[in-house]
Design a protein that fits this description.
This protein has two domains: 215 residues, Alanine racemase (TIM Barrel), CATH 3.20.20.10; 111 residues, Lyase, Ornithine Decarboxylase, Chain A, domain 1. Helix 1 crosses helix 2 and helix 4 packs across helix 5. Strands 1, 10, 11, 12, 13, 14, 15 and 16 form an eight-stranded mixed β-sheet that branches. It has ten helices and 16 strands. Helices cover 28% and strands 23% of the residues. The chain starts with 5 loop residues before the first strand and ends with a strand. It is elongated and about 75 Å long. It has 354 residues and is of the alpha/beta class. The structure holds pyridoxal-5'-phosphate (PLP). The site of pyridoxal-5'-phosphate (PLP) has 13 residues, from strand 9 and helix 9. The site of pyridoxal-5'-phosphate has 13 residues, from strand 9 and helix 9.
Length: 354
């Protein structure tokens, strides 16, 4: 018996997207870190990223990276390590992104204990105001990193379009290039990785405007959804529908569209507003706010209207559809990054990989 609700993933579409985008990046001498974080540590996805040609696997959580242990590519932790997880980071991660010298010092100490060399990418703050050291502090950081015997500076990186919505440009990524030049000259070393951001950097790349020294991108959303994220444009040559949600109808009845009685607060303490459209055919689906924020869902049958949701119920108006829905039928939804992230995190939602 098939169980619902479930997220259905077409792995071959994701594999094609990965092949296509890694090839595009390769044409500009750029290696891809495949970011699997939106799938909560799924090895199925991690495998497909590797098969598709990514050079590294990246994830924000060490728990997820541990799942990828048997896959034969370097693992990158793309969220700054917590001091409380240093042991696991050294054990399961080859390269971590860093911006705090006291954390790097702990990594150095633990790497020594585990007889390892831990590689780091120093993150730079270039305008988006999430993680990264300020450019004027680079030399101070470098002097200290250079004194640590079990840390190797693998490269520098930047993250944009995450908090501040700053779009990657020839100027801000040019700054990354300049800082990497400065480090290489002043400290007489070679940086292997100049990591120029996430899926929001693809537009710049495809317009051939990427500073030439950038040789690495960390891609997640674009590989799954075939979309760059600076302007939200679909990427030509990619699949946009590799994932969908299926949920089951548990009630279907004609009811009034305006609730009956005095309107107070709904399940989430808000006062709802209703339009009276007379009697309508309504479906209740067995999925709710505990699984996904309904405002992030799009129904594939465009004639269906999402009315709202409570913790465990999603309400649809099915009156205008050509299809005669009945109890037990399955309704399909398109997903975006936010809804997929929530759904893969819910233990109540099954994940099916085809
Ligand atoms: C999530 C994340 C990425 C991947 O971003 P996408 O928009 O999914 O490509 C890359 N780098 C860091 C540091 C991230 O947190």
């Amino acid at each position: 018996m098939t169980e619902y609700p479930r997220v259905v993933v077409d792995l071959s579409k994701i594999r094609e997207n990965v092949k296509f985008l890694t090839k595009k990046c390769e044409e500009s001498q750029i290696d891809v870190v495949g970011i699997a974080k939106v799938f909560s540590g799924s090895t199925e996805i991690a495998k497909v990223l590797v098969e598709g040609g990514v050079k590294y696997l990246g994830d924000s959580r060490v728990e997820n990276l541990k799942q990828y242990e048997s896959l034969d590519v370097p693992k990158i932790m793309i969220r700054l390590p917590m001091k409380s997880q240093i042991k696991e980071v050294i054990k399961y991660v080859d390269i971590s992104l860093n911006s705090e010298i006291s954390t790097i010092a702990l990594l150095n100490e633990e790497a020594g204990k585990q007889y390892r060399i831990h590689r780091i990418i120093l993150m730079l703050e270039l305008g988006d105001l999430r993680e990264g050291i300020l450019p004027q502090d680079v030399e101070e950081y470098m002097d200290q990193i250079n004194s640590m015997g079990n840390i190797k500076l693998e490269g520098v990186g930047v993250n944009l379009t995450c908090y501040g919505g700053i779009i990657p440009s020839f100027e801000n990524l040019g700054q990354l290039e300049k800082i990497s030049d400065l480090i290489e000259k002043k400290y007489n070393l070679k940086l292997n990785i100049i990591s120029g951001g996430n899926s929001s950097s693809l537009d710049l790349l495809l317009k051939n405007n990427m500073p030439s020294k950038v040789n690495n991108l960390r891609l997640g959303e674009s590989l799954i959804f075939g979309r760059e994220t600076a302007y939200g444009k679909d990427l030509e040559g990619c699949f946009y529908d590799s994932v969908k949600l299926e949920a089951e109808i548990i009630e279907l009845k004609e009811k009034q569209s305006h609730p009956v009685g005095e309107v107070g607060f709904n399940a989430f303490g808000k006062k709802p507003i209703f339009i009276d459209r007379g009697m309508r055919k309504r479906a209740i689906l067995a999925i709710g706010e505990q699984d996904v924020d309904q405002s992030n869902l799009k129904v594939m049958d465009e004639k269906l209207i999402i009315l709202g949701a409570s913790s465990d119920h999603l309400l649809l108006d099915v009156t205008d559809s050509k299809k005669e829905y009945k109890v037990g039928d399955i309704v399909e939804f398109k997903l975006d990054y936010g809804s997929l992230l929530q759904l893969t995190t819910s233990p109540y939602v099954k994940k099916v990989f085809n």
